[in-house]
Design a protein that fits this description.
Number of strands: 10
Largest sheet: 10 strands, mixed
Helix content: 25-40%
CATH architecture of one domain: Alpha-Beta Complex
CATH superfamily of one domain: Transposase Inhibitor Protein From Tn5, Chain A, domain 1
Strand order of the largest sheet: 3-2-1-4-5-10-9-8-6-7
Shape: globular
CATH class of one domain: Alpha Beta
Order of helices and strands: HHHHHEEEHEHEEEEEEHHHH
Distance between the termini: 73 Å
CATH topology of one domain: Transposase Inhibitor Protein From Tn5, Chain A, domain 1
Length: 386
């Protein structure tokens, strides 16, 4: 296929960042991610329709070239057949983010999204500026029995070798992934879990004789507490950790968080970053790539397509984030609504029309500082008997 000037630099950029991929695989990854931006969709027909006029090829020819990217080796024709290993793209994508990151601390959210009842996608996403980049993912059959934490541990394990020891990585999880096993797996990597716990759980603060319900540590709006102790009553699951309990004004209930960081070194407000992964899933679906319309049911093929989807998301967030960081904060709207992605979606095609793909960089927002212990913490220490 010919290489139009606007797309060829992007293909070269992708090949540089993914040196382990073969030339056809890197080209297919670049073609898919480029076509998603043009089509604003991850659908095969939509992407082929958007690329065919640009490439000067029949739509069916482009469609078949795109299909070759996500097919397994057994489904391809001709000699030298090979299939893309979706896991192989996680570390290069992660290194791409780290190389351009402004700082040495970031939040990594672990969460899942579904495609009807056919597929479940478990993602480890870098969250920044209101959205998430799914740097590693496992695509699983929908409604399948079994624990998720082995898959989550495997995702994080693939990312760990690419991170220097000096980085502070906070791994955010919601109540559906709460487990002592996952907590220990995260700390074994040298990272810091910030795990939202279920209200039915119990904690025994250091120096206390009895376990107390988690809800007792933030019993009303405005209450907050932080302290070291042990979570989980069962001896086999006993976990040394810090409990951060906070019930913000106007919220329906408290945030109950477990971490390995000290009480003064973490802030329950960091858990709000985990909500940004939901905006990342929205970008994958209705706000961007229209994944919810996919008819795919094969996890392996879907995983290869998600590799391109993740790359397209990274590209737009990198470009859109750099553009937003250059805008005076007081001029930005108060409600974010995945605007960084939308900004990138506007800037990338405009730059392509001017002659080449734009360059971006990640400019993370400052993290909130952990406040000193407040009056509510002292109240619980003084009035809850051990």
């Amino acid at each position: 296929m010919p290489h139009p000037e606007g797309r060829y630099p992007w293909a070269a950029t992708v090949a540089t960042h993914f040196p382990a991929l073969s030339k056809p695989q890197a080209f297919g990854l670049a073609l898919w991610s480029f076509g998603m931006v043009l089509a604003r969709s991850c659908g095969l027909s939509a992407v082929a329709l958007a690329l065919a006029p640009l490439l000067g090829r029949p739509e069916n020819t482009v469609r078949q070239r795109l299909r070759e990217f996500y097919l397994g080796a057994a489904a391809k024709r001709g000699p030298g057949r090979a299939e893309l290993d979706p896991a192989a793209g996680s570390a290069p994508l992660w290194r791409w983010v780290l190389a351009g990151w402004g700082g040495r601390r970031l939040a990594l959210a672990l969460d899942a999204t579904t495609l009807a009842d056919r597929l479940t996608v478990l993602c480890a996403s870098v969250v920044d500026r209101g959205c998430g980049i799914p740097v590693a993912r496992a695509v699983l059959p929908g409604n399948a029995p079994g624990a998720w934490h082995p898959h989550g541990c495997a995702l994080l394990g693939r990312l760990r070798p690419a991170v220097d020891p000096g980085w502070a990585v906070v791994v955010l999880t919601d109540r559906g992934l709460e487990s002592a096993e996952l907590f220990r797996a995260i700390t074994a990597l040298g990272w810091h879990p910030l795990m939202r716990a279920k209200a039915v759980g119990h904690v025994r603060p250091a120096g206390w004789r009895r376990f107390r319900p988690l809800a007792a540590f933030a019993p009303r709006p405005g209450a907050r507490w932080a302290g070291r102790g042990e979570a989980y009553k069962k001896p086999a699951a006993r976990l040394a950790c810090t409990l951060l309990a906070c019930w913000g004004a106007g919220h329906a209930g408290p945030w109950l968080l477990l971490t390995d960081l000290g009480p003064a070194a973490a802030d329950p407000a960091w858990s709000a970053y985990r909500a940004w992964v939901e905006q990342g899933f929205k970008v994958a679906k209705t706000a961007g790539w229209q994944w919810q319309r996919s008819r795919r049911a094969d996890p392996a093929r879907a995983a290869r397509l998600w590799a391109a989807l993740a790359l397209a998301t990274l590209w737009l967030l990198e470009v859109g984030g750099a553009a937003e960081a250059a805008v005076p904060p007081e001029t930005l709207p108060a409600v974010r609504l995945h605007r960084v992605f939308r900004r990138g979606l506007a800037l990338v095609p405009a730059a392509l029309l001017r002659g080449g793909p734009p360059r971006g960089r990640f400019v993370p927002e400052p993290w909130p500082q952990a406040p000193p212990p407040g009056a509510e913490e002292r109240f619980i220490q003084n009035h809850t008997y051990p």
